[in-house]
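Problem statement: downstream parser choked on a complex file, so we are re-checking the raw output for the zinc ion run. The parser issue turned out to be on our end (a line-ending mismatch), but while we're here, posting the original submission so the record is complete.
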Amino acid sequence: MSTLNHWFEIIKHKEHLIVIREKLSEIDPRFHTIYTNMYLLLGSHTALLIDTGCGLFPLKPLIDELIGKRKLLVFNTHCHWDHVCGNYEFNEIYIHEKEAAFISKPINISNLKDSSKDIVKKYEKNNFLIPPAPVIKNLKEGDKIDLGDYNIEVIHTPGHSPGAISLFTDKNELFSDDTAHYGAVFLPKKNKLHEFLSSISKLMTLCEKKESIEIYPSHEEFPLGKELLEELYNKINNIENSWNTKQKNKDNFLRSWIIDDGKYKFVISKI
Ligand SMILES: [Zn+2]
């Protein structure tokens, strides 16, 4: 079942899993991305919200309604603005220890000022500086979270950002942050691609032991099968060979090269 409030699309994907999407393309098309996905996991006594999105419209009232009497935990998959700008609505946020300092300060999103979409004017009231949550707590590799009848493990997957995390559940779901999805995949500089590749490889090893895995990425389509991981690994591993097909990012907004094969658009940082 899918419902749309004035901004968020709310999809009751499973009894225990609600997807909340916002259209990043309606905020700034220069990210080459249509959707940002947030996930709300409902355990018997605790709910876990994965990411807080772009912060344009109130998210917390919606979450409070969806979780009922459950306790709420809020995690950020990583510190990029499209995943953390709703943090200030919540009292306490968990993030990997490498990115805790970054989200403890206001997030500067002044690079969105030149977006072609008028909606970014809503950020003017904060002068494009999004306040942090009052309390920031650390996560690290191997941390386990008990939601009651639902257990989750933290997997550190650096590459897209130094403290990116994926979450693996005992219901064979993998929340793959910005490490594995279709569409525009944001990669570090060419000489640092090995780090991104080892994170994908780590996820492949985890999934190998399981017969059926559903992958829930933080952008675009969901759920995906584990074949995504191998395909992505091979394509990123082959970037060196397709380097002569790279294009300039025409507005220079992201300071990146683009290699587009129709299925994936690799956005490779120049800095
Ligand atoms: Zn993202």
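For whoever reads this later: The domain at 2-234 is CATH 3.60.15.10 (Metallo-beta-lactamase; Chain A).
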